[in-house]
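Exercise 7b. Backbone tokens:
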């Protein structure tokens, strides 16, 4: 992803925290300007900006967004409820209010002019990012990175990184602490692998030359900035669907909001970033995004170290999740200062932290948690006026329910065209494309295509590298396809033709609502799907695989989900009326269910506040820690260890039962510790010298890398109470839920392999944690 050069170049810029060195005194005032743009006035504006004299605009395709306004509003709630910003000091501009002039004017009036030493100043932008030509720039590519205001389609210039840097420098000159978040990206590249259907927050370049050689000062991070970014250079920053609120957000903003809610306002910015980065792996539409952290102030809170309103604010203390009462209405509804971002879900139960003397503690049950830092609860048992909680009373989480989340989402493009006609069309396309000098891509995961031709909503759509789509109709000729490729003036193009499923194949894949496999949800289109059913022509035979979008060879380590399954051919039929669709459909159904199992484990969250003081680590043959995401070669042997978090050393640690299991790329789960029931799996062992820095688990080495190769995820499960049947964590594939009579935790664990989600997740004590560690196992190298 090309970088927004407000300072240290970072990839597809999403989070830029710029903090000037300020006096040691606490912040005097906290002010924020939040901008969110979904509507780019596509209906009432011309299709392209006005052509400047002697120039040609390149940006003629526009796409509205769906989550930017939600991001701005959710961030507003987070700031006022958790970070000490007064509502009157937070200004929000959305959609048509967010024009170029209004954004620039608000930065000056809201952020620059009132800034004083020690103030906390925050600018947030969610919307499209782009680039603009600058022939006088000192950058090699002669491009300035930009954010795109709401009136850009009417001809208003983008707001360039150099303009923003000058404005930010004025704030830093006033000795205020400045934090800037951009949820946007700026590259025209489509990333790796099969292009995603989700909406990326970037527009093609505006080629009108700004010809600006004005000097700019030192980058903000050199003056004490903290810089976080959504993704690496070759990745997209996408929007993601949040099933809890049934709304769209920026994928990284969604992860960041949860990290801010879980860690609390006084947590170091570096720890907030690490939690957000880990959370990205469970937001599967953006799981190929790898956030970046750069700059100073990683050990300080995100918005400075000043006191946050009151000590009775929602906080986490001594491993407990504690939330405060915001208000109680006459009907007995208790509003809490904690929501989905704090890990609360419908059915969670909380207990009064400091009950009245000689009185039993009040208990609350959450009835709704659809906002990031606000939820509703009811008192359990009879409600007496004298026993009603008061604003500021603290409650700790005692029973936790997993937030409602749908299972794996898949897109199955379907056509009524028979197999023979579909195969003949693909053969004709291949011949014409190769004759014209273009490349024919057979695997979009191994070789990223520049163009994709796919069947969507009854027509063949050609997608180009800039995100533009050309409708070629229901029955395009090979010549029409070649002409569309030639009009892009890119030679040679690398084209992948995505074959849809014929009707009989689609109907033989039993997934989704109304089937026994409703843990997998079918989507109407590619947007918001975790996997696509991709067809290709291999020789003369159609083949199909489940493909995770935006993940290609070389980037699979960024995703905990496999990049794709194997390719499966359409078997030859027996008799004139059969074509092998039923057999292929059964195979693809089984593979989808195995992917759903991996997805279910990856999206299982731990209860808030229940963090074990040790991390899982893999040790090589010399007992050295293996870095996460490192490739594990075939035949190599590794050991397992618990590595203490540095902040836990020297403190007393409560022992827990420890379980380690791994899920490979086929969906099979292998229990690695313990192997003989709950024996020798209670850690850490008592020690007179405090917690050990490292604890070896089991025999060393404990396992060897072998087939199947691909994405392997290792899980560390810790719990205060033993899991009576540890083998609930090991099974070869998807299976139904186990027998009744299990503990609530066992019942939850067994559901992760279920093909159905008809039963709600159980409510269970919040005394366990789950950590995930992903590696890529690689096959042996071929002999020379």
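Sequence design result:
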């Amino acid at each position: 992803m090309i970088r927004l050069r407000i300072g240290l170049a970072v990839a597809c810029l999403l989070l830029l925290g710029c903090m000037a060195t300020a006096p040691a005194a606490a912040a005097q005032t906290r002010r924020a300007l939040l901008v969110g743009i979904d509507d780019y006035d596509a209906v009432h504006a011309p299709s392209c900006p006005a052509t400047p004299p002697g120039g040609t605009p390149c940006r003629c395709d526009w796409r509205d967004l769906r989550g930017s306004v939600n991001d701005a509003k959710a961030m507003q709630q987070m700031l006022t409820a958790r970070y000490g910003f007064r509502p009157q000091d937070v200004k929000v501009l959305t959609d048509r209010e967010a024009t170029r002039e209004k954004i620039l004017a608000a930065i000056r009036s809201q952020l620059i002019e009132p800034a004083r030493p020690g103030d906390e100043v925050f600018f947030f932008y969610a919307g499209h990012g782009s680039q603009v030509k600058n022939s006088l720039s000192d950058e090699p590519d002669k491009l300035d990175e930009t954010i795109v205001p709401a009136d850009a389609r009417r001809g208003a210039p983008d707001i360039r990184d150099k303009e923003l840097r000058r404005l930010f420098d004025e704030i830093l000159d006033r000795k205020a602490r400045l934090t800037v978040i951009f949820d946007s990206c700026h590259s025209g590249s489509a990333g790796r692998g099969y292009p995603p259907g989700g909406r990326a927050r970037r527009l093609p370049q505006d080629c009108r030359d700004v010809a600006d050689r004005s000097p700019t000062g030192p980058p903000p991070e050199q003056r004490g900035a903290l810089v976080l970014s959504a993704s690496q250079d070759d990745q997209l920053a996408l929007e993601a669907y949040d099933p809890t609120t049934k709304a769209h957000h920026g994928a990284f903003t969604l992860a960041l909001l949860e990290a801010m809610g879980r860690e609390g306002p006084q947590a170091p910015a570096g720890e907030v970033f690490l939690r957000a980065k880990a959370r990205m792996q469970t937001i599967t539409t953006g799981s190929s995004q790898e956030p970046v952290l750069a700059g100073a102030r990683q050990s300080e809170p995100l918005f400075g170290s000043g006191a946050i309103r009151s000590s009775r604010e929602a906080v986490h203390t001594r491993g407990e999740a504690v939330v405060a009462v915001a208000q109680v209405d006459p009907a007995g509804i208790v509003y809490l200062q904690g929501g989905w971002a704090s890990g609360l879900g419908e059915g969670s139960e909380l207990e009064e932290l400091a009950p009245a003397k000689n009185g039993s503690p009040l208990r609350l049950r959450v009835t709704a948690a659809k906002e990031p830092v606000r939820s509703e609860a009811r008192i359990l048992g009879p409600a007496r006026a004298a026993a009603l909680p008061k604003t500021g009373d603290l409650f700790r989480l005692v029973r936790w329910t997993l937030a409602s989340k749908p299972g794996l989402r898949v897109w199955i493009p379907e056509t009524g065209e028979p197999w023979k006609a579909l195969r003949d069309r693909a053969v004709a396309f291949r011949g014409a494309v190769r004759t014209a000098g273009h490349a024919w891509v057979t695997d979009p995961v191994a070789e990223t295509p520049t163009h994709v031709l796919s069947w969507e909503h009854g027509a063949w759509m050609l997608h180009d590298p800039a995100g533009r789509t050309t409708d070629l109709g229901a029955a395009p000729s090979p010549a029409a396809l070649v002409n569309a490729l030639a009009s892009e003036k890119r030679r040679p193009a690398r084209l992948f033709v995505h074959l849809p499923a014929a009707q009989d194949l689609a109907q033989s894949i039993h997934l989704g609502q109304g089937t026994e496999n409703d843990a997998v949800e079918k989507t109407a289109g590619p947007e918001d799907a975790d996997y696509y059913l991709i067809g290709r022509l291999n020789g003369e035979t159609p083949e199909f695989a489940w493909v995770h979008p935006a993940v290609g060879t070389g980037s699979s380590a960024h995703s905990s989900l496999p990049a794709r399954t194997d390719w499966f051919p359409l078997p030859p039929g027996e008799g004139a009326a059969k074509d092998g669709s039923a057999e292929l459909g059964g195979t693809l159904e089984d593979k989808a269910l195995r992917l759903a199992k991996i997805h279910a484990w990856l999206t299982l969250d731990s209860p808030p506040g229940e963090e074990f003081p040790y991390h899982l680590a893999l040790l090589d043959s010399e007992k050295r820690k293996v870095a996460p995401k490192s490739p594990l070669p075939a035949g190599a042997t590794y050991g397992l260890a618990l590595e203490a978090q540095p902040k836990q050393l020297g403190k007393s640690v409560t022992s827990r039962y420890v379980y380690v299991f791994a899920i490979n790329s086929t969906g099979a789960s292998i229990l690695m510790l313990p192997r003989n029931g709950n024996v020798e799996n209670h850690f850490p062992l008592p020690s007179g010298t405090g917690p050990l820095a490292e604890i070896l688990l089991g025999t060393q080495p404990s396992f060897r890398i072998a087939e199947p190769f691909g994405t392997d995820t290792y899980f560390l499960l810790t719990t205060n109470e033993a899991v009576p049947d540890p083998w609930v964590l090991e099974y070869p594939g998807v299976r139904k839920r186990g027998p009744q009579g299990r503990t609530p935790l066992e019942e939850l664990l067994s559901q992760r392999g279920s093909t159905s989600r008809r039963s709600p997740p159980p409510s269970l004590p919040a005394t366990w944690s789950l950590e995930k560690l992903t590696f890529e196992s690689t096959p042996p190298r071929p002999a020379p």
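Instructor comment: The mean pLDDT is 82. Residues 86 and 165 are 26 Å apart (CA to CA).
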